[in-house]
Design goal:
The chain is of the alpha/beta class. It has 13 helices and eleven strands. The protein has two domains: 273 residues, no CATH class; 125 residues, CBS-domain, CATH 3.10.580.
Length: 422
């Protein structure tokens, strides 16, 4: 994520990177579900903590195979709970006709890629609040079901340790899932942007002031402050200070500090994303595009001919044409995919990215929408601009970044507008 010194341009670069990665695993309600590689880290940590610490302390008589199996199933159910939390956000957004393209599960839980800003503070508050509400509801439901399955007697219920020892594997997993879902729900209700509670606060400020940029700035700064408080608290714990509720210890302190750093960075990124959207929204892409197409090369020419043109002209992009009709685009970096010995025998048509695989956009589309579309395409650095079926030009990722840089530099010079570090 971002540090507080990142510029809006750097924010875009990281944002587009986030949007473009993830392992697609399926769809629910028309929403793509993706897993980030970082999810593996927290998944293994959850399994290890349950199997090596919590479950053996609850059930010292369990066989190791049963302990590890229960820990593995509990971890899977935990991340399914996180998915349900994010689905709740997404389904409420869709109910208000706000597109949701994907949900990504990653190191710190999940994120729903909601493509448009809510139309009003009320809608934003509803979208944000439903996630923690669902998590808390799941928590109480799992806990109740775990108690019913365990058939805990009155005597055992008075002694929590005895009650836990009477539970079977399923009841144990449900009891743990219940407590952890309640904690997740309550944590997300903290009024620290971009947590759900922070987004509810943002909606309240937006409704009270009627000023979306100001409410976003205030919410972001509060989120960053809260994140840094967690960082300081975590470092204190790592050095032996006992903190109420959190306790003490090196591992717990470092983990809390890491979470605090992430929240602070995410709050900063959210604000910069808002700045980027303000700079790009309602700016027609025709204003940013190059109105001349790259030089053309015939489809039957060899990669060796492409290399000669690159060296002669210094150009990095060429249109590949057949019978004067563009069929694809090829770049200098594509040469690296071809063995040196095959340059003479490989035609450009075999290497070029087909035109139909490049994002095609209208001249009237705004630059922010184009940026997001480019981030999700197979080739996220260039799009073809058309009007009435005629190719009018091209726009690259760098063209959009250059516009952002010019606009934010100009705004940074204005009164009352924050300057962004480089």
């Amino acid at each position: 994520m971002l540090s507080t010194e990142d510029s809006p341009v750097r924010s875009v670069q990281r944002l587009t990177g986030m949007l473009s990665h993830g392992i697609h695993v399926g769809r629910l309600f028309g929403i793509r579900i993706a897993l980030d590689w970082s999810l593996l880290v927290i998944f293994l940590l959850v399994v290890f903590n349950l199997a090596a610490g919590l479950f053996p302390s609850w059930h010292p008589d369990w066989h190791p195979a049963l302990i590890w199996g229960a820990a593995l199933v509990a971890a899977v159910l935990f991340f399914l709970s996180v998915l349900v939390h994010e689905l709740a956000h997404a389904l409420v957004a869709k109910a208000y006709a706000i597109p949701v393209r994907r949900i990504t599960l990653f190191l710190f839980g999940g994120v729903a890629d909601i493509e448009e800003e809510p139309s009003s503070p009320k809608v934003e508050a509803l979208i944000a609040f439903v996630g923690p509400l669902v998590s808390i509801g799941l928590g109480f439901g799992f806990s109740l079901l775990g108690g019913l399955l365990a058939g805990i007697s009155a005597g055992a219920s008075a002694d929590p340790e005895l009650a836990l020892r009477h539970m079977g594997p399923l009841a144990t997993m449900l009891t743990w899932l219940g407590s952890v879902n309640v904690i997740i729900g309550l944590f997300n209700l903290l009024p620290a942007f971009p947590l759900d509670g922070g987004r509810v606060l943002h909606a309240i400020l937006w409704g009270a002031t009627g000023d979306l940029p100001k409410s976003t700035r205030w919410s972001s700064r509060l989120g960053q402050t809260f994140g840094w408080l967690l960082v300081v608290t975590g470092i204190a714990m790592a050095f032996g200070v006992r903190v109420p509720f959190f306790g003490t210890g090196l591992a717990g302190g470092l983990w809390l500090a890491f979470i605090g750093w992430f929240l602070s960075s995410a709050a900063a990124m959210s604000y910069r994303q808002h700045v980027v959207k303000g700079v790009l929204q309602d700016v027609p892409i025709a204003r940013l595009m190059k109105r001349e197409l790259p030089p053309s090369l015939e489809a039957n020419q060899s990669v060796s001919a492409l290399v000669d043109e690159i060296m002669r002209t210094g150009r990095q992009e060429f249109m590949v044409v057949a019978d004067s009709h563009p069929i694809g685009l090829i770049r200098a970096r594509d040469v690296r995919r071809i063995d040196r010995g095959a340059w003479e025998s490989t035609p450009l048509r075999d290497v070029a990215t087909p035109v139909e695989k490049l994002p095609t956009i209208a001249t009237t589309e705004d630059a922010y929408a184009v940026l997001r579309r480019m981030a999700r395409s197979d080739d996220g650095h260039l799009a073809i601009v058309v009007e009435g079926g005629t190719v009018m030009g091209i726009v690259t990722h760098d063209d959009i970044l250059r516009w952002i840089e010019l606009q934010t530099e100009d705004r940074a010079a204005g009164a009352g507008t924050p300057a962004f570090g480089r």
